[in-house]
Amino acid sequence: MDSTPITARSLQRPYHIKGDDFERAYKNHLSDYRSWVKDGDGRHARDYLIFPQNIGPNVSIDETSLSDGELYTILSNKDAHGRKGALIAIVKGTKVEDVVAVLMLLNLYQREKVLEVTMDFSDSMHAIVTTCFPNARNHS
Q1: What is the pTM of this model?
Q2: Torsion over CA of 51, 91, 122 and 76, rounded to 10 degrees?
Q3: Could you report how far apart the first and last alpha carbons of the chain are, in Å?
C-alpha cells in the first residue's frame, strides 16, 4: 500500500480480512502516518494536511469529492507529476476563508515561490490564489 495505489478493501477477499479493520491498523500502526501528522496529536488532520516541503513554482488547485459528498480543496505541485512530493495541501471544504487560513500556514517565502497556478474558472479558487500566492499568474 506504500508504493502501489490500492485500497485496504481490495485486500478483503483474497486475504480473508476485514478491509476497514486492516485500513485502521495500517493507518495507526503500520504506516508512518503518525510521524507526518504535523502537530503530533493529529487533531487537525481531519480538517487539513499540509506539506510545505512540496511547494514549487508550478502548482494546481482544484476541489474534489472524496466520499459521501465531502468536498476537499487540493493544492499540488505539478512538477511532481502525481508522484511522491505532489501533494502540498488538502483542506476539508471549499470555503475561501477556510482554505486561505490553512495555506497561510505556509510562510511567505514558500508562497512567493509559486509563479503559476492552474485552476478552473471558479471565483473562489481565484480568490484563494490571489490572496495566498502574490507572485502567481493563473492558467485556467
Answers
A1: 0.69
A2: 20
A3: 34
